[in-house]
Specification:
The protein is of the alpha/beta class. Helices cover 44% and strands 20% of the residues. The chain contains eleven helices and eleven strands. The strands form two sheets. The protein has a six-stranded mixed β-sheet with strand order 2-1-3-10-4-11, with helices on both faces. A five-stranded mixed β-sheet has the order 7-6-8-5-9.
Length: 321
């Protein structure tokens, strides 16, 4: 071995040593998993199922903490400002990490630069549900009813400017209907609003709607995908009644603050993927397609979602607040 190489080698070992120590020592305490939504929604459900599985394999508890409010901004900012040590993670989503980029002139965090992508969670099948008391049983009947009663029908979503709200606005633009938006602090509260008859319509995740549909408390008129969902073959796709309609994609995934060390990201990615693809977890998730992937693949997925959401914003004519 040449003398120059021998001189460099000790420094290379010293430079690599901290990375080894990171992976060997991590985790030394509980990991906090921040959900920027209230309990009851699809992100909260996924987080709790994953936290239980990952806590077992990491050897330290993974604790779910709901920090809801302001279109996921509160929870996202908390994680963005946390130490990049792998002990505070975000269950990011289409609002926190994509939609808010377009809907707010000023944010207390950068949806892209302030986070480290770890792996994708799940992409929800979005659906359109109505109150059991509303006298409509199809998308066409809902459109006709809304046109006969302009401004008298209301729809709920998980927030004033979130991805579900954008789905509702895209539906209104495509159908020429006047339906008033009522923001709720999450999917769970919005679904409760439909069940109680506070609102007639909701754009929500199928995971949240299915239990209420089975209980006969709401009616699911359509899924908002490009085709029917294989697990709900009797529910039509909205595009069947509204040609060309496309809703905003609803997804979630796991992020750390910016600059989390690579060995920790790799460890978390491995453990999260094990949990996401476990038979026990898949059996408990209705209408949720697992995204998964490496950190690099998930980063590319998020970039694609930013581009797609930008097109929807242009279609609807939304302006940042």
């Amino acid at each position: 071995m040449e003398l120059s190489t021998l001189r460099i080698l000790p420094f290379a070992i010293l430079a690599f040593a901290p990375l080894q120590l990171y992976s060997q020592a991590y985790p030394a305490k509980a990991v906090r998993l921040v959900v920027p939504n209230p309990p009851g929604g699809s992100s909260d459900l996924l987080a709790r199922l994953v936290a239980q599985k990952v806590g077992e394999t990491l050897g330290q508890p993974m604790v779910v903490e709901n920090r809801a409010g302001a279109d996921s901004i509160i929870g996202a900012e908390l994680v963005a400002r946390s130490a990049p040590d792998g002990y505070t993670l975000l269950v990011g989503n289409a609002s926190a990490n994509v939609a808010n980029l377009f809907l707010y002139k000023s944010l207390p965090y950068d949806p892209v630069k302030d986070f480290t992508p770890i792996t994708g969670g799940g992409e929800s099948v979005t659906c359109l549900v109505v109150s059991a008391a509303l006298p409509v049983n199809s998308v066409k009947e809902l459109i006709d009813y809304a046109k006969r009663n302009p401004g008298k029908l209301s729809y709920g979503s998980s927030g004033a400017n979130g991805a579900y709200y954008m789905s509702g606005e895209a539906f209104k633009a495509a159908t020429g209907t006047d339906i008033v938006h009522v923001p709720y602090k999450g999917l769970g509260p919005a679904m409760t609003g439909v069940v109680r008859g506070e609102i007639g319509v909701a754009f929500t995740a199928a995971t949240v709607a299915i239990p209420q549909v089975r209980a006969g408390k709401v009616k699911m008129l359509a899924v908002l995908e490009g085709k029917r969902y294989s697990k709900l073959p009797d529910i039509p796709a909205a595009v069947e009644a509204v040609p060309g309609f496309r809703a905003a994609a609803i997804w979630n995934g796991f992020f750390g603050p910016a600059s989390v060390p690579a060995p920790i990201v790799t460890r978390l990615n491995q453990e999260l993927l094990k949990a996401l693809h476990s038979p026990e977890l898949i059996a408990k998730l209705d209408a949720l397609e697992i995204i998964g992937g490496t950190p690099e693949e998930f980063a590319a997925y998020v970039k694609g979602q930013v581009e797609a959401f930008g097109r929807i914003v242009k279609l609807v004519g939304m302006q940042p607040q």
